[in-house]
TrEMBL record:
Residues 15-102 form the TfoX N-terminal domain. The lineage of its organism: Bacteria, Pseudomonadati, Bacteroidota, Cytophagia, Cytophagales. Gene3D superfamilies: YgaC/TfoX-N like chaperone. It comes from Chryseolinea lacunae. This is TfoX/Sxy family protein. InterPro entries: TfoX_N.
Length: 111
């Protein structure tokens, strides 16, 4: 498994106050499910945040951010952020806050 344990620990710490957090191995990394909904995933050197379609365009303007592309399809509402985009606590907290805000209104995947 090729994900950064350092980044995963940082996410674990940020989500410690959330009531229902599960970790799932997927996307060549580890994904943090909050309330049974995908929220944040950790890869080797970047994080994937589920920010939702309303925050998507503004998110793409932030440093270190790029669109998530799955195959040839752009996954609107999901972004990758490199370590450069989360260096400071303020930057990291921005992304976690955005993902948690969308998580409150996101629909869970069908089983």
């Amino acid at each position: 498994m090729a994900y950064s344990e350092k980044l995963a620990d940082k996410v674990r710490e940020a989500l410690v106050d959330q009531k229902k957090v599960d970790e799932k191995v997927m996307f060549n990394g580890v994904c943090f499910m909050v309330n049974k909904k995908m929220c944040i995933c950790v890869g080797a050197d970047e994080l994937m945040f589920r920010v939702g379609p309303d925050a998507y365009e503004e998110a793409l303007e932030q440093p270190g951010c790029r669109a998530m592309i799955h195959g040839k399809r752009v996954m609107k509402g999901f972004v990758f952020v490199s370590e450069d985009g989360i260096r400071s606590k303020k930057q990291f907290d921005y992304w976690v806050g955005l993902a948690l805000a969308f998580n409150k209104v996101a629909k869970a995947s069908k089983k």
